[in-house]
């Protein structure tokens, strides 16, 4: 994909030279200047620091954007096609028609959410008009340990928290559609009128954050969006 975004999306911040060097090292292109070590030698402090620096870092693929833009659907499809875990959020909001616990969210009571919050069990959490949302730290950590990468869907506050923790290893993908697209999609899916109005009311506040992303996509055709994201991620995870 060229820097002008010929694949259909806009790469806001291309990878730097360090990222390219890390990828080459992971593929096995080790510098000939590296010392040859006897298998019986032990690592000194400097060697350990070098090894840690060269170790592959876990990647968190953060899908964010405007409400009603299809973020969760894209995240689930991406999870299936890349064989990477999608860390399901916990929420206290009411379950909607067609939703299932453990598939769309982990639906829990407000008191249970607060207990998890008090025990600091969330890597990030947020309170919105319709309820509280959070990503469980244990589930995120296990996904990263087992797979080296994980997919999450969060709003801007969640993105900020993950970016602060993981730095550039939190890969930010921003999805958006027009307000009219949101209305049509949500009506087609049977969303309550108050939810649709909330999405439209918050649209302007959410869309301004599109510049704070590594890849920006208008999710008009979900199949095309998925293909473009996979292409964008191919040399990053």
Automatic annotation (TrEMBL):
Which PROSITE patterns does the UniProt record give?
A: GUANYLATE_KINASE_1, GUANYLATE_KINASE_2
InterPro entries in the record, alphabetically? GK/Ca_channel_bsu, Guanylate_kin-like_dom, Guanylate_kinase_CS, P-loop_NTPase
Q: Supply the SUPFAM superfamilies for this chain.
A: P-loop containing nucleoside triphosphate hydrolases
Which parts of this chain are annotated as the region Disordered? 28-51
Q: Which reaction does it catalyse?
A: GMP + ATP = GDP + ADP
One GO term in the molecular function aspect is: GMP kinase activity
Q: Is Transferase one of the keywords?
A: yes
Which Pfam family, an example, fits this chain? Guanylate_kin
**Which part of the chain is the Guanylate kinase-like domain?**
58-234
Key word Cell division present in the record?
no
* Function of the protein: Essential for recycling GMP and indirectly, cGMP.
What family, per the record? Answer: Belongs to the guanylate kinase family.
Protein name (Swiss-Prot/TrEMBL): Guanylate kinase
